[in-house]
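Troubleshooting log. The previous structure file for this entry was overwritten by mistake, so regenerating from the original sequence record. Sequence copied from the archived sheet and checked twice against the printout by T.R.
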Amino acid sequence: MEDQRYRIMFAYRMRSVGFLCLHCFDTHDKQIVTVPVYSGYDGIEMNHGSMTNFPEELKETLSLEKEKIDQGYYSIRTWDIENLG
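Regenerated output below.
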């Protein structure tokens, strides 16, 4: 099984309470990618227009990690280098 291209590092709420700022590591290009993701009270919305231009591989990662994101696993307040797997 091939590793995912994007690994989520940490997330935090932006000033606009409806958005999370996700910092991910692109394992192919060896760079950090920061994306705003719409997240209401029920968690991130995978079909929101803010994700229209995201690469498919990033959308896959967000979909696979949605539950952890929604539960606060990647919160900057609890961030640890071990989260990168």
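The chain has a mean pLDDT of 87. Archived copy saved in two places this time.
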